[in-house]
């Protein structure tokens, strides 16, 4: 297996790439959160139509709650990543003055 080709990048281009990667991850997380919201709506509809009882609804809600932990954790990591990028950008600007 050959080594991947890593293109030459300036520091500014690398920072831009990192910001784009954060934005793409945020978009993916938004889709996960939206899907879980749709599950909650479906559970409410099933309860309204007496298709499930309260105990089943609670079990389903607990599964949604477990699933929501992942995007929350990922959000925290993305926040740290963004803060690090902004700190580095600030240092870079100070060194270029």
Structure, briefly:
With 97 residues, the protein is mainly alpha-helical. 82% of the residues lie in helices and 0% in strands.
Walk me through this protein's architecture.
The chain is mainly α and 97 residues long. It has a domain at 29-95. 82% of the residues lie in helices and 0% in strands. Helix 1 packs antiparallel against helix 2 (54-95). The relative contact order is 0.12. The model has no long low-confidence stretch (mean pLDDT 92).
Proportion of β residues? under 5%
Structural class: mainly alpha
Number of helices: 2
Instruction: State the shape.
Output: elongated
Give the termini distance in whole angstroms.
Answer: 44 Å
Low-pLDDT segments, ≥5 res: none
What key attributes describe this structure?
2 helices; 97 residues; single chain; mainly alpha; elongated
Give a topology summary.
Elements (H helix, E strand, L loop, with lengths): L10 H38 L5 H42 L2
